[in-house]
Write a sequence for this structure.
Protein backbone atom coordinates (compact mmCIF):
# COMPACT_ATOMS: atom_id res chain seq x y z
CA UNK A 1 0.00 0.00 0.00
CA UNK A 2 2.83 2.37 0.90
CA UNK A 3 4.53 1.67 -2.41
CA UNK A 4 1.34 2.34 -4.36
CA UNK A 5 0.74 5.52 -2.37
CA UNK A 6 4.28 6.70 -3.01
CA UNK A 7 3.93 5.96 -6.73
CA UNK A 8 0.64 7.90 -6.81
CA UNK A 9 2.25 10.92 -5.12
CA UNK A 10 5.22 10.78 -7.49
CA UNK A 11 2.99 10.53 -10.59
CA UNK A 12 0.75 13.32 -9.30
CA UNK A 13 3.74 15.59 -8.76
CA UNK A 14 5.29 14.67 -12.11
CA UNK A 15 2.15 15.25 -14.17
CA UNK A 16 1.31 18.35 -12.13
CA UNK A 17 4.67 19.89 -13.03
CA UNK A 18 4.16 18.97 -16.70
CA UNK A 19 0.67 20.48 -16.66
CA UNK A 20 1.96 23.68 -15.08
CA UNK A 21 4.73 23.88 -17.68
CA UNK A 22 2.17 23.35 -20.47
CA UNK A 23 -0.04 26.14 -19.11
CA UNK A 24 2.93 28.54 -18.92
CA UNK A 25 4.02 27.69 -22.47
CA UNK A 26 0.54 27.84 -23.99
CA UNK A 27 -0.70 30.97 -22.21
CA UNK A 28 0.96 33.45 -24.67
CA UNK A 29 -0.73 31.66 -27.58
CA UNK A 30 -4.06 31.68 -25.74
CA UNK A 31 -3.70 35.38 -24.97
CA UNK A 32 -2.77 36.16 -28.57
CA UNK A 33 -5.85 34.31 -29.85
CA UNK A 34 -8.11 36.00 -27.31
CA UNK A 35 -6.71 39.43 -28.17
CA UNK A 36 -7.30 38.83 -31.86
CA UNK A 37 -11.00 38.22 -31.13
CA UNK A 38 -11.52 41.46 -29.22
CA UNK A 39 -13.30 43.98 -31.40
CA UNK A 40 -11.99 47.26 -29.96
CA UNK A 41 -8.91 48.83 -28.41
CA UNK A 42 -10.99 49.73 -25.34
CA UNK A 43 -11.69 46.06 -24.68
CA UNK A 44 -8.01 45.18 -25.16
CA UNK A 45 -6.89 47.88 -22.69
CA UNK A 46 -9.77 47.26 -20.26
CA UNK A 47 -9.03 47.27 -16.52
CA UNK A 48 -9.51 44.95 -14.77
CA UNK A 49 -8.18 42.67 -17.46
CA UNK A 50 -10.79 40.78 -19.52
CA UNK A 51 -9.38 37.35 -20.20
CA UNK A 52 -12.18 36.48 -22.62
CA UNK A 53 -13.81 38.80 -25.17
CA UNK A 54 -17.35 39.85 -24.27
CA UNK A 55 -18.47 39.56 -27.87
CA UNK A 56 -15.93 37.63 -30.01
CA UNK A 57 -15.39 39.42 -33.30
CA UNK A 58 -13.44 38.74 -36.51
CA UNK A 59 -13.04 42.45 -37.22
CA UNK A 60 -9.25 42.28 -36.75
CA UNK A 61 -8.93 39.40 -39.21
CA UNK A 62 -11.15 41.20 -41.71
CA UNK A 63 -9.07 44.35 -41.32
CA UNK A 64 -5.83 42.46 -41.98
CA UNK A 65 -7.12 40.45 -44.94
CA UNK A 66 -9.37 42.88 -46.77
CA UNK A 67 -8.48 46.37 -45.62
CA UNK A 68 -4.78 45.65 -45.24
CA UNK A 69 -2.33 43.85 -47.49
CA UNK A 70 -1.75 40.75 -45.37
CA UNK A 71 -2.43 38.33 -48.24
CA UNK A 72 0.44 39.87 -50.19
CA UNK A 73 2.73 39.67 -47.15
CA UNK A 74 1.81 36.01 -46.70
CA UNK A 75 2.53 35.10 -50.33
CA UNK A 76 5.86 36.97 -50.23
CA UNK A 77 6.93 35.17 -47.06
CA UNK A 78 5.88 31.78 -48.46
CA UNK A 79 7.86 32.38 -51.64
CA UNK A 80 11.00 33.65 -49.92
CA UNK A 81 11.00 31.01 -47.14
CA UNK A 82 10.26 28.06 -49.44
CA UNK A 83 12.95 29.04 -51.96
CA UNK A 84 15.54 29.68 -49.23
CA UNK A 85 14.80 26.46 -47.32
CA UNK A 86 14.77 24.35 -50.49
CA UNK A 87 18.06 25.60 -51.91
CA UNK A 88 19.78 25.68 -48.50
CA UNK A 89 18.76 22.05 -47.92
CA UNK A 90 19.90 20.99 -51.41
CA UNK A 91 23.28 22.69 -51.00
CA UNK A 92 23.53 21.26 -47.50
CA UNK A 93 22.98 17.72 -48.83
CA UNK A 94 25.76 18.03 -51.40
CA UNK A 95 28.27 19.84 -49.19
CA UNK A 96 27.45 17.76 -46.12
CA UNK A 97 27.95 14.54 -48.08
CA UNK A 98 31.34 15.68 -49.38
CA UNK A 99 32.50 16.81 -45.92
CA UNK A 100 31.38 13.52 -44.41
CA UNK A 101 32.58 11.00 -46.97
CA UNK A 102 35.64 12.49 -48.68
CA UNK A 103 39.08 13.47 -47.38
CA UNK A 104 40.81 16.54 -48.81
CA UNK A 105 43.27 19.15 -47.61
CA UNK A 106 40.85 21.98 -46.84
CA UNK A 107 38.20 19.84 -45.18
CA UNK A 108 38.87 20.91 -41.57
CA UNK A 109 39.30 24.66 -42.35
CA UNK A 110 36.13 24.60 -44.45
CA UNK A 111 34.12 22.95 -41.70
CA UNK A 112 35.53 25.45 -39.19
CA UNK A 113 34.55 28.28 -41.54
CA UNK A 114 30.93 27.05 -41.59
CA UNK A 115 30.89 26.79 -37.79
CA UNK A 116 32.34 30.29 -37.28
CA UNK A 117 29.94 31.77 -39.83
CA UNK A 118 26.98 30.70 -37.69
CA UNK A 119 28.37 32.71 -34.77
CA UNK A 120 28.42 36.02 -36.66
CA UNK A 121 25.29 38.12 -35.89
CA UNK A 122 23.35 38.95 -39.03
CA UNK A 123 22.98 42.65 -38.26
CA UNK A 124 26.77 43.15 -38.45
CA UNK A 125 26.59 42.60 -42.23
CA UNK A 126 23.59 44.86 -42.83
CA UNK A 127 25.39 48.18 -43.53
CA UNK A 128 27.73 46.70 -46.16
CA UNK A 129 24.91 44.64 -47.71
CA UNK A 130 22.69 47.70 -47.90
CA UNK A 131 25.38 49.72 -49.66
CA UNK A 132 26.02 46.92 -52.15
CA UNK A 133 22.34 46.31 -52.92
CA UNK A 134 21.58 50.02 -53.15
CA UNK A 135 24.50 50.61 -55.52
CA UNK A 136 23.27 47.87 -57.88
CA UNK A 137 19.58 48.87 -57.57
CA UNK A 138 18.64 45.55 -55.93
CA UNK A 139 16.55 46.85 -53.02
CA UNK A 140 12.84 45.94 -52.89
CA UNK A 141 13.46 42.67 -54.73
CA UNK A 142 11.82 39.53 -53.39
CA UNK A 143 14.25 37.21 -55.20
CA UNK A 144 17.23 39.02 -53.71
CA UNK A 145 15.72 38.40 -50.27
CA UNK A 146 15.37 34.70 -51.10
CA UNK A 147 19.03 34.62 -52.15
CA UNK A 148 20.13 36.37 -48.95
CA UNK A 149 18.12 33.98 -46.77
CA UNK A 150 19.54 31.01 -48.66
CA UNK A 151 23.05 32.27 -48.03
CA UNK A 152 22.19 32.86 -44.37
CA UNK A 153 20.96 29.27 -43.88
CA UNK A 154 23.68 27.40 -45.83
CA UNK A 155 26.20 27.10 -42.94
CA UNK A 156 23.61 25.60 -40.59
CA UNK A 157 22.32 23.22 -43.28
CA UNK A 158 25.81 22.00 -44.18
CA UNK A 159 26.93 21.42 -40.59
CA UNK A 160 23.66 19.75 -39.58
CA UNK A 161 23.40 17.42 -42.57
CA UNK A 162 27.08 16.56 -42.34
CA UNK A 163 26.35 15.28 -38.82
CA UNK A 164 23.48 13.15 -40.14
CA UNK A 165 25.72 11.72 -42.89
CA UNK A 166 28.33 10.82 -40.26
CA UNK A 167 25.67 8.80 -38.46
CA UNK A 168 24.94 6.63 -41.52
CA UNK A 169 27.17 3.63 -42.14
CA UNK A 170 29.20 3.77 -45.34
CA UNK A 171 28.45 0.07 -45.90
CA UNK A 172 25.14 1.10 -47.46
CA UNK A 173 26.99 2.98 -50.21
CA UNK A 174 29.57 0.24 -50.62
CA UNK A 175 26.79 -2.27 -51.25
CA UNK A 176 25.30 0.11 -53.83
CA UNK A 177 28.68 0.51 -55.55
CA UNK A 178 29.02 -3.26 -55.80
CA UNK A 179 25.63 -3.29 -57.56
CA UNK A 180 26.97 -0.77 -60.09
CA UNK A 181 25.69 2.52 -58.65
CA UNK A 182 27.72 5.69 -59.04
CA UNK A 183 28.32 8.12 -56.16
CA UNK A 184 25.37 10.22 -57.28
CA UNK A 185 23.05 7.24 -57.72
CA UNK A 186 24.01 5.83 -54.31
CA UNK A 187 23.35 9.21 -52.71
CA UNK A 188 20.00 9.64 -54.46
CA UNK A 189 18.66 6.09 -54.13
CA UNK A 190 20.18 4.84 -50.88
CA UNK A 191 21.37 7.65 -48.61
CA UNK A 192 18.73 10.34 -49.13
CA UNK A 193 15.80 7.99 -48.26
CA UNK A 194 17.58 7.20 -44.99
CA UNK A 195 18.25 10.91 -44.47
CA UNK A 196 14.61 12.03 -44.64
CA UNK A 197 14.36 12.91 -40.92
CA UNK A 198 17.53 15.01 -41.10
CA UNK A 199 16.51 16.71 -44.33
CA UNK A 200 13.04 17.45 -42.94
CA UNK A 201 14.49 18.94 -39.74
CA UNK A 202 16.94 21.07 -41.73
CA UNK A 203 14.25 22.28 -44.13
CA UNK A 204 11.86 23.17 -41.29
CA UNK A 205 14.55 25.08 -39.38
CA UNK A 206 15.60 27.01 -42.50
CA UNK A 207 11.97 27.74 -43.40
CA UNK A 208 11.05 29.04 -39.94
CA UNK A 209 14.16 31.20 -39.64
CA UNK A 210 13.49 32.72 -43.07
CA UNK A 211 9.79 33.12 -42.21
CA UNK A 212 10.56 35.02 -38.99
CA UNK A 213 13.54 37.10 -40.19
CA UNK A 214 13.01 40.83 -39.66
CA UNK A 215 16.31 42.75 -39.71
CA UNK A 216 17.21 42.15 -43.37
CA UNK A 217 13.64 42.51 -44.58
CA UNK A 218 13.03 45.80 -42.82
CA UNK A 219 16.36 47.19 -44.09
CA UNK A 220 16.06 46.11 -47.72
CA UNK A 221 12.30 46.41 -48.30
CA UNK A 222 10.24 49.58 -47.96
CA UNK A 223 7.63 49.14 -50.70
CA UNK A 224 4.41 47.63 -49.40
CA UNK A 225 3.96 45.08 -52.19
CA UNK A 226 7.32 43.45 -51.43
CA UNK A 227 6.99 43.28 -47.64
CA UNK A 228 7.06 39.96 -45.78
CA UNK A 229 4.94 39.12 -42.74
CA UNK A 230 7.41 40.33 -40.06
CA UNK A 231 7.77 43.69 -41.82
CA UNK A 232 3.99 43.98 -42.25
CA UNK A 233 3.38 43.24 -38.56
CA UNK A 234 6.13 45.66 -37.55
CA UNK A 235 4.29 48.42 -39.45
CA UNK A 236 1.41 48.07 -36.95
CA UNK A 237 3.67 49.63 -34.30
CA UNK A 238 2.81 53.31 -34.74
CA UNK A 239 4.44 56.36 -33.21
CA UNK A 240 1.91 56.75 -30.40
CA UNK A 241 -0.02 53.50 -30.52
CA UNK A 242 0.18 49.79 -31.30
CA UNK A 243 -2.64 48.02 -33.10
CA UNK A 244 -2.66 45.03 -30.77
CA UNK A 245 -5.83 43.46 -32.16
CA UNK A 246 -4.66 43.46 -35.77
CA UNK A 247 -1.15 42.37 -34.75
CA UNK A 248 -2.57 39.44 -32.80
CA UNK A 249 -4.78 38.43 -35.72
CA UNK A 250 -1.86 38.65 -38.15
CA UNK A 251 0.35 36.60 -35.83
CA UNK A 252 -2.31 33.88 -35.53
CA UNK A 253 -2.59 33.68 -39.32
CA UNK A 254 1.21 33.71 -39.66
CA UNK A 255 1.40 30.60 -37.47
CA UNK A 256 -0.81 28.54 -39.80
CA UNK A 257 1.84 27.70 -42.48
CA UNK A 258 4.40 26.59 -39.89
CA UNK A 259 1.82 24.42 -38.11
CA UNK A 260 0.85 22.82 -41.42
CA UNK A 261 4.53 22.28 -42.27
CA UNK A 262 5.13 20.47 -38.99
CA UNK A 263 2.03 18.32 -39.44
CA UNK A 264 3.08 17.28 -42.96
CA UNK A 265 6.73 16.63 -42.05
CA UNK A 266 5.96 14.90 -38.77
CA UNK A 267 6.11 11.39 -40.25
CA UNK A 268 9.64 12.06 -41.50
CA UNK A 269 10.71 13.54 -38.17
CA UNK A 270 9.77 10.38 -36.27
CA UNK A 271 11.26 7.85 -38.69
CA UNK A 272 14.45 6.09 -37.66
CA UNK A 273 17.57 7.16 -39.52
CA UNK A 274 18.09 3.59 -40.77
CA UNK A 275 14.50 2.92 -41.78
CA UNK A 276 15.28 3.39 -45.47
CA UNK A 277 18.04 0.76 -45.44
CA UNK A 278 15.56 -2.10 -45.23
CA UNK A 279 13.08 -0.84 -47.84
CA UNK A 280 12.72 -2.39 -51.25
Amino acid sequence: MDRKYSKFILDFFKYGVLLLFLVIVMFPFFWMLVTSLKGSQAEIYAFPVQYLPQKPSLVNYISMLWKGNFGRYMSNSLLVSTVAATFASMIGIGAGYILSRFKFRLKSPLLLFYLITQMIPTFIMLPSLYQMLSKHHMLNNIWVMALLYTNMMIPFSVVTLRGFFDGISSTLEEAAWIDGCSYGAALRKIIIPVMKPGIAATFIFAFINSWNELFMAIMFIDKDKYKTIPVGLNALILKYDIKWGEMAAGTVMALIPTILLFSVAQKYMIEGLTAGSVKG
Observations:
- The chain has a mean pLDDT of 84.
